[in-house]
Design a protein that fits this description.
disordered N terminus, single chain, NAD(P)-bd_dom_sf, NAD binding, alpha/beta, Rossmann fold, UDP_ManNAc/GlcNAc_DH, UDP-Glc/GDP-Man, oxidoreductase activity, acting on the CH-CH group of donors, NAD or NADP as acceptor
């Protein structure tokens, strides 16, 4: 594997593009029926209450038919796959594809123990490019494509900016099972503009992934990815609202969620939390909102963005009530410790981290002294508040705080010590 220096990346999505013009399927010796073959089965109602039986036989849903569509890569082919952006998404691509093909990584990763070259001309040798750089948001939540003008994100972006093929990643950083190659891979092509696009990407990906799921157009692949992530965010937002409703009635929201999860159908378990982080779930709603109306989604996204500040306000109000009740001296500023500031457990990445937003909300209030504890996140990464040294994670030090808020159980910390603490309020979110 060779790696060349390029622009830094904060990878959230991948796009696969064959560099040379792709011959039609018949030239490749592939028996791939055109999408018109399946069009009759696709003319279904937009929102059926119960999916019609024929939907189960749709070739893009039926496992056997999908496997029949998966072509075999010619063993005489010698692809060179260039992965543009080797971050926490690109790394998965490099690992998966390098088991089957020569791989060329392109990124600026000075901290990685990888041999670099400085010649961008190395990319000229590549036959395929896998682009895994992010589509970020600006402060006003509008879409920012400055990291790469050729990436995927909002609906129709592939067709308008890149082409001819797209495949949305389904990587969950930090997750071991299932492995990347075992996750069904959505693939698509712009066959209406460049015949053979879908066949080309299937030839490449068939060797790497256990199952390919071809769809008719790149727009379907794009919308599918946004549907997946936005559904998850809305479910988490509702879990938070349910928790907010439970607490005033003295009901444990976690017990409610656990009890509901016993239903073997019609329910997917979600638990309340501080919020959502990373480059996908918090920002994907705004891709859809950029060119479509989604009132429910927009409301859920706004509530999710506001949650860390709301949690901070509740915490401060609780400490103020304690002080007035004589539980603490009104002359001493309360001390608060936020535990876990990576965007999720096991991660040091801070992208859209609700834990960082919580820390910042406390700092902006000016009403408490706040520190954070996270063995994976350095002080330089969160300069707005002091970091609790790892060796200070002990009963004596933790009992000097008035409140400890656990955003999530970060790896490397012994949370059993929380049961031993006296004289400190410990809140494992949701906090009320």
């Amino acid at each position: 594997m060779r790696v060349t220096i390029g622009k830094p990346s904060f990878h959230s999505r991948s796009l696969s593009v064959p560099a040379p013009p792709t011959p039609p399927p018949e030239a490749l010796g592939l028996n791939l029926p055109g999408f018109d073959t399946f069009k009759a089965n696709f003319d279904l109602p937009l929102t059926p209450v119960t999916p019609p039986p024929e939907y189960k036989e749709h070739p893009f849903s039926h496992n056997d038919r999908v496997r029949d569509l998966s072509p075999v890569v010619d063993p005489n082919d010698q692809p060179l796959v260039a992965v543009i952006g080797v971050g926490y998404v690109g790394t998965h691509l490099v690992e998966s594809f390098s088991a089957h093909y020569d791989v060329l990584g392109f990124d600026e990763l000075p901290s990685e123990r990888i041999r670099f070259t400085t010649s961008k001309t190395d990319l000229h040798e590549a036959t395929h490019f896998l682009i895994s750089v992010p589509t970020l948001l600006k402060a006003d939540k509008s879409i920012d494509t400055s990291n790469s003008t050729r990436t995927t994100g909002f609906h129709r972006m592939t067709r308008s900016l890149l082409g001819p093929v797209a495949t949305a990643h389904r990587v969950d950083p930090g997750r071991i099972e299932p492995p990347c190659h075992a996750i069904p891979k959505i693939v698509s092509g712009l066959d209406d503009e460049i015949p053979g696009s879908l066949a080309s990407v299937m030839r490449l990906y068939n060797q790497v992934f256990d199952r390919l799921v071809p769809v008719s157009r790149t727009e379907v692949a794009e919308m599918m990815k946004l549907y997946e992530n936005c559904q998850r965010m809305m479910c988490i937002a509702f879990a938070n609202e349910m928790a907010d409703a439970c607490i005033p009635h003295g009901i444990d929201p976690y017990e409610v969620a656990a009890a509901a999860a016993s239903k073997p159908f019609g329910y997917m378990p979600y638990t309340p939390s501080l919020g959502v982080g990373g480059h996908c779930i918090p920002v994907n709603p705004y891709y859809l909102l950029s060119n479509s109306a989604f009132p429910l989604l927009e409301a859920a996204a706004e509530k999710m963005n506001a949650r860390p500040a709301a949690i901070a306000r509740r915490a401060i109000d609780s400490l103020t009530r304690d002080a007035k009740a004589g539980a603490a001296s009104a002359l001493v500023r309360p001390r608060v410790l936020v535990v876990g500031v990576g965007f999720k457990a096991g991660q040091s990445v801070l992208s859209n981290s609700p834990g960082v937003d919580l820390v910042k909300a406390f700092v902006r209030s000016g009403e408490v002294d706040v520190m954070y504890a996270d063995p994976l996140v350095k002080q330089s990464a969160v300069p707005v508040a002091p970091r609790l040294a790892d060796e200070k994670w002990n009963k004596e030090t933790l009992e000097t705080f008035d409140m400890i808020i656990v955003a999530f159980r970060q790896h490397g910390l012994d949370f059993g010590i929380m049961d031993e603490l006296r004289g400190v309020k410990v809140e494992i979110l949701p906090f009320y």
